[in-house]
Design brief:
Length: 271
Amino acid sequence: MFESRSIGAFIGYLSIILMVTSTSLASVQGTVLFRADFENDKGDNTLAKWKPDSDGQIWEIADFPGSGKGLLNAKEGCGVSGNTPLPGTENFSDGIIQLDMSWQDDDSWGIIFRKSEEKKGYLVTFGYNETPAVIVALLDEGCGETGKCNDQTQCENNPDKTLGQKPHGLFEIKDDGKGTGTQDLSVVYTGVIEAKGDSIKVWYHERGKPKGDPVIDIKDNTHKKGQVGVWHESQGNCMIDNVVVRTFDAGTSVDAESKLATSWARIRSAY
C-alpha cells in the first residue's frame, strides 16, 4: 500500500513539473503566427490558406530561385493588385514579419499589417525598378486599395499621403529615376518589418547579405493591432518564399528538416 501511494505521489509530482516546464517554455518561445516555405502541401503552405482579396489574382506553387519551391503570382496588372490576408495573424501587434522576394517585373511587393478594417492599418511597399524605394503608408489614406497601383492612389513620391519613403540603394538608378534590378528571378531579396509599439523599422537587402541599418525607422501610433497580409502591385510572374510572422520571443518552432529551418536561425539572430 505504501509503495503504491509513493508511486502515485511521484507520478503526480512529475506531472506538475512537466506542466510548469511546458508553461515556462511556451512563455520563452512565444508564438509563430504564420510560416510558409511551400515545400509541402501542409499547413500554411497550402494554396487554400492563400486567398487574395482581388478576384483576378492567381497564386501558384513554382520553383523558387536557390531554395526549392515558392509562391508565384501568375497574373499582372494594376487591376489584380491587392492583399492576401494571412490566417492566424488577425491579432498581430508587436513582432517580426519576414519574406523573401524575387522579380520578373518592375513593380512592388508589400506587406499589410495591423489591419483591423478595410481602411485601417499599415502598408509597407518593397519597391523595385518602377519605384526603387521603401514606402510606409496608412491604409486610412487609401493606400493599398484592391485593384490599384500606388501611383493610382497617390501613395508613392507623395509625402502628404505617406509616413515615410526612402531609396533602398539596392542597385543603380538610371537618369529617369528607374532602377536597374534584374527581372529574371536570378536575385532574391529579403524584406523584414519590426513593429514594436509605435516603432516601425524596415530592412530590405539581398538574401544572405548583412542586414545593415533599417531603410525606414519611424514612429507612428495610429494602429495597435490587426491582421498581416502579403500585398502586391501588378507583380506578374514574381515570387515570394519563406514567409514568417512571429512575436519577438518566438523560438525555433519549425521542422528541423525543413528549408525554413535553415533560414530561421538567420532570421532569429539578425532581427
